[in-house]
Amino acid sequence: MTRQNRIKDSAFCDGTTSLDKSPTCGLPLGLDFDYFAGQLYCCDPFVGLTRVGAFGGLATTLVPTKDGVPYRFLIAVTKTSDGPVYFTDASAVYGPKDADKSIQTGDSTARLLKYDPRTKNVTVLLSQLAGAVGLATDSDASFLLVSEFIAKRILRYWLKGEKAGTSEVFLTFPGGPNKIKRNQEGNYWVAVNVPKNDSTVAPQGVKFSPSGEILAMVDLSKEYNSRITIVIEYNNKLYVGGRNFPFVGQYDIKYVRNLTSTKINLYQIPIIVVEARMPF
Q1: Is it the case that residue 240 has pLDDT exceeding 70?
Q2: How many domains does the structure of the chain reveal?
Q3: Domain containing 126: what range?
Q4: Residue 107 shares a structural domain with residue 181
Q5: Do 223 and 199 form a contact (C-beta atoms < 8 A)?
Q6: Which secondary-structure segment (H or E) carries 266?
Q7: CB 3.0–4.6 Å: which of 7, 34, 109, 178 could bond 92 by disulfide?
């Protein structure tokens, strides 16, 4: 739950993906689970950074604003084991309803932020980002990866070591990278939407290592004919979702390796409706 009104108006909210209803029903665009504390952190652009306790229930708003100014487009969050919570505001100008405008105008007002649960302070780590919609850390929280959808790249922001507090371009893509998710082996998947000449996109899943080596790429355009948001690998399966699809796709994966490259063949099992209310 993200809003008190969400409980009162459950019939109004259930089954909807309408952005017009989001101020009442909630819009949890970014989620990350703290396995040590059993808590769920959530980015809701209409509420702020929130947290749900180990037993569920109504989310607690941790930081609704930065210096008194409400966030416009909170969208990604990751909790590190040593305390801080990192999250992104995809734009200081455009909200979720105007996401396409932010892309069309090349908006570069996004930010990477840090929330300290002990002091309850929020610090801006990076600004002037172009559509910061994805966020992930490595296994020992030495750096953050931030995807810039509009700039078509992933940045690496160092948290530890000699480069701490600095950033660098980590990967670039022919299309916009969205959510980044680390798998069980410590590698990453990112959803990438490559523009085509006919004004549509070719959705892809791209797997890469912590050093930036591309390990695999898979074309998802057969089942997905518009922008996807997320690709997750878990127990030799891929799960794919997007705002415009009322389902989550599940795929079996099989790796075919040779001396020059790693390819992935996807053998689709029947698409299953895991959740028909994908918000973004």
Answers
A1: yes
A2: 2
A3: 1-172
A4: no
A5: no
A6: strand 262-268
A7: 109
> Which of the four pLDDT bands, split at 50, 70 and 90, describes residue 110?
very high
d(CA 206, CA 188): 8
| Tens digit of each residue's pLDDT (9 = 90 or more) over 220-231 | 888 888 889 999
Nearest C-alpha neighbor of 2 from the set 39, 34, 49: 49
Terminal Cα-to-Cα distance of the chain (whole angstroms): 17
Show the tokens assigned to 120: 């309850």
Q: What is the pLDDT of residues 51-93, one digit of tens each?
A: 988 888 888 888 877 777 778 889 999 998 778 999 999 998 9
Query: pLDDT tens digit string along 140-174?
Result: 899 999 999 999 999 999 999 999 999 999 999 99
Residue with tokens 């396995």: 35
**Are residues 150 and 103 in contact, defined by beta-carbon separation less than 8 angstroms?**
yes
Residue % of the chain over a pLDDT of 70:
85
Contact 191, 177 (CB under 8 A): yes
Same domain membership, residue 15 and residue 123: yes
Per-residue model confidence (pLDDT) at position 115: 94
* Same-domain status, 23 and 139: yes
102 and 207 in a common domain? no
CA 197/CA 16 separation, integer angstroms: 32
CA gap 47, 27 in Å, rounded = 9
- Work out the number of other CB atoms within 10 angstroms of the CB of residue 216: 19
Q: What is the DSSP string of 129-151?
A: ES-EEEEEE-TTSSEEEEEETTT
Residue 222 CA to residue 125 CA, distance in Å, equals 39
70 with 185, same domain: the answer is no
Last residue of a domain, one of 147, 172, 197: 172
